[in-house]
Amino acid sequence: MSRVFNFSAGPAALPEAVLAKAQSELLDWNGSGMSVMEMSHRGKEFVSIAAQAEADLRELMAIPDNYKVLFLQGGASGQFAGIPLNLGAKVGDYVITGSWGKKAHKEAGKYITANVVAKADPFTSVPPQSEWNLSPDADFLHITPNETIEGVEFPFVPEVDVPVVADFSSTILSRPIDVSKYGVIYAGAQKNIGPSGLVLVIVREDLLGNADPKTPMVWDWQQMADNDSMLNTPPCYGWYMCGLVFQWLKENGGLEKMAEINERKAKKLYDAIDASNFYANPVAPECRSWMNVPFTLANADLDAQFLAEAKEAGLVTLKGHRSVGGMRASIYNAMPEAGVDALISFMADFEAKNA
Asked: Last residue of a domain, which of 191, 225, 251?
């Protein structure tokens, strides 16, 4: 078997050590005689798995005691509706810096007055807060700290008088963050947390209990918090896998070490792009993502050839999102530095042959 370097934006690569651990426990978890996929979510075995995963995540992110941690279904996209419904909001402010922020705003508009207080045009930077037109009656402010498709990252945390709600799907666990600066943090698992099928919600306790009565029970944060995220059958195996990822992060130096590695990986790749006349990245340098690096070739007619030869070299899923084209290298925690080095080397060779 030969493993490739997988640059997919999500579902994304998982750490090989995590996959090996899961493989070793697939038929028999901890002497239970059964797989995690076969366990009752009410049984003591899975309850212990869930509790350990939450404890490890709290430690990694230094989550304050007055925040609840929920492991839910429906993906981050489900929370686009879950947020206004759970906050009992009438008005929400949205800063749109890419495709996912745009979708979050559109979905929220079905339930509340969703105001666009700032919008990047094009999606290559983050408008400074001094230019935002904040609403005086807003119940929350929504941002997308990292836009997966466009590779745009917030270089600051907004300072406002309402709870900041943040879609951290593609940047969570890549570095330490101050959770206390946010009212709600949510993130789809399939990038830096674990396999797809689960969404993480970290919510300040004073924001619970305000849900619109029409909120589906499986997305009602208060009901889920009261039931340890097990009001209904949770995505048990995905939750277990997330727990293995949290353990892997702890064993490898935690989020401080991840930040050091991720910053170095991103700098290497951006430096290679910037030093070339053959490749280009459109994002303002101060807003460039550590996790998702889009780039274009000077001659778009070479895109298909680039992708085909990259695949032959063991570098896969580099095609950019269909809405923007070009290439995109997603270099989440599980992407080893050797993978970034291999990509940079391939890019240099391809340029030398085709420039």
From this structure: 251
